[in-house]
Design a protein that fits this description.
This protein has 230 residues and is of the alpha/beta class. It has a domain of 149 residues: Rossmann fold, CATH 3.40.50.300. Helices cover 51% and strands 13% of the residues. It is built from nine helices and five strands. A five-stranded parallel β-sheet has the order 2-3-1-4-5, with helices on both faces.
Length: 230
Amino acid sequence: MDLSQPRLDDDVKFQSGGPRRFIAIAGNIGAGKSSLLEFLTSTYHVAPFYEPNDDNPYLEDFYRDMKRWAFSSQLFFLSNKFRIHQEADRTPGVVIQDRTIFEDAEIFATALHQMRKIDARDWATYCDFYQSILQAIQPPDLLIYLRCPMRTLRRRIRLRGRAMEQDIPLSYLKRLERLYEDWIERYDLGEKLVLDSDRLDFVSDLVDRQDVRERIERLLPSALQRHSAG
């Protein structure tokens, strides 16, 4: 089933002229999404929305038995991300989200379907739900994609020490990477910014921090207000 994103009419696609601005951070497991979100939250007056990993009651089971729990886990992520998007749409000012609903479907669920972990019947149900959601939400005003080489991803996954992530197969991470690169290439729902998170140290390098700030502010002029110490 085709999961390609529908093109939005101009009056929907560019509704960002109101008080709300929506920034989304996308990237593979270990790409640095949470670190970038924390940096931007400490720099600007924004409202952060986090990936609900810890709330997913299926996640631990999923990593033990992907085929048994893939559909349940992905449906949970999709429904919860829909709720987060709705909340972000109601929040005035600038909001920043760690991982988008597009990634849930276009990357993770698609990968599991390709791997035959989600069968055709469940996949059809999932896709129907996803397409309905797309009609009910607004896309981000700015999508920031963090590109990161596989060696760095694997090192970061080891260092952060999440037990359920330690046995993720390399082949799975590489599949996700291919899907991410294909998706970001065709993404056209708004502005996008690609950052090399392996080379840019926006956590501690002052020059890189300033570079990231300037690149984001050029794409959202006058929208972002820095904290006095930012």
